[in-house]
């Protein structure tokens, strides 16, 4: 059975690298035009090509979002952009507009199409229609419960992708007009104003305020980590992580969590959740978590009426305030350059540029310590203190990403026989196979090449994306191998393997008449 895919967000090249290094199987990203995240740091055409090549070397697929409604006067430009993506080897197009879906399928039949969650496919009939229109994968609406997903999977052959983690919309996927009506910015054109994250009062006919909390429409973040096994067993094709406007640290941490959860379930039929990594994720970004409509969460556990933005984690309580200095008892560690928020009558946020223990300037404080620092407003005693940014954690994740520990495993087959040509072959994880022959090998006069010499040389793959998994070596004793030639052969072999991994799309373009009104 094909393994479930972990699909990670990429709002920038930094986030894309973070996703790949954390172990994703695919990334989704947007170009400069036609995407539903108009305010993300989207990829221009040159960077799109770089991103695709980078991902493909690591065996990671790239899906590009064109998940907005297209105006009539944009159709030609849209088709030109899609053709550009196809020719530059994008693995699939994520699309919302039904008319453009039909047009793209008819003009570029070899381009894989995914129905965006903005298309609001949420039942068996919807999936059947999508299949008839040429859709290879449906990204199901966030409101689709797992029982319906199982029904779809049992009745139609279709790849099914679900949002597994991240921000939720209070309205139906792709059907929300709230932003257009009150903010004059359309979510279906990629510029949602986030109306559901704003404060509101719910009042009765006598204007009595009924809501408990200022944000009655703001959803908690979806988190299905503990249900990964159920999603795998239901036949879901891809677990999609929301977050194209989040930091690289967020992308890395959440992708790593789902990578561990998925791998552990395939290995032991149990989902492993690293609670330390989960706590790190809470430090980086969280609105509290819900299992969402996917697992029929109680409505009381879906909305976070307290606040719509990052909650961080609680790390202390204010025990004193005087002369513009606040004193805090810590429940957890803090360090210089950390971001904190004091929840008082009005929230007070700051970066800890300096703080004190017993009037002594320090750079780090631990659980149980009492710290003090200067503030420029009145702070109430007993106010909660939240950690909203851990500088140490950010640096740690950044350093881990920069190590580029993800490597593509390869096997080398080497045959070195006296009076025969040197033979060198490499096979990668996708079963791509490249082989080369070198010069005829002669007997050594006084400095024979050993097995250890060859193994040491072949194992040094430098800054390539590869690592040696196996070496099958058949070598005669007492022969001499010119290492300069051997190194050149290995270099050329890996260059050809790179080209094989940077596969080319089979682009077929069919003519189709478009009648667009003036």
Helix/strand layout:
Blueprint: E1 5-10, H1 13-22, E2 26-30, H2 45-57, E3 61-66, H3 75-87, E4 92-95, H4 98-107, E5 113-115, H5 124-132, E6 137-139, H6 146-155, E7 159-166, H7 178-183, E8 221-223, H8 228-233, E9 238-241, H9 248-268, H10 275-284, E10 289-290, E11 313-322, E12 325-330, E13 334-335, E14 339-343, E15 348-351, E16 355-357, E17 360-362, E18 364-365, E19 370-374, E20 384-389, H11 391-402, E21 408-416, E22 421-427, E23 433-440, E24 442-443, H12 451-459, E25 466-475, E26 479-480, H13 483-501
Parallel strand pairs: 1-2, 1-9, 2-3, 3-4, 4-5, 5-6, 6-7, 7-9, 8-10, 21-25
Antiparallel strand pairs: 7-8, 11-12, 11-20, 12-19, 13-18, 14-15, 14-20, 16-17, 21-22, 22-23, 24-26
Helix pairs in contact: 1-9, 9-10, 9-11
Model description:
The protein is α/β, with parallel strands linked by helices and 518 residues long. It is built from 13 helices and 26 strands. It has helices spanning 13-22, 45-57, 75-87, 98-107, 124-132, 146-155, 178-183, 228-233, 248-268, 275-284, 391-402, 451-459, 483-501; strands spanning 5-10, 26-30, 61-66, 92-95, 113-115, 137-139, 159-166, 221-223, 238-241, 289-290, 313-322, 325-330, 334-335, 339-343, 348-351, 355-357, 360-362, 364-365, 370-374, 384-389, 408-416, 421-427, 433-440, 442-443, 466-475, 479-480. The strands form six sheets. An eight-stranded parallel barrel has the order 1-2-3-4-5-6-7-9, surrounded by six helices. Strands 15-14-20-11-12-19 form a six-stranded antiparallel sheet. The mean pLDDT is 93.
Give a quick rundown of the structure:
The chain is an alpha/beta fold and 518 residues long.
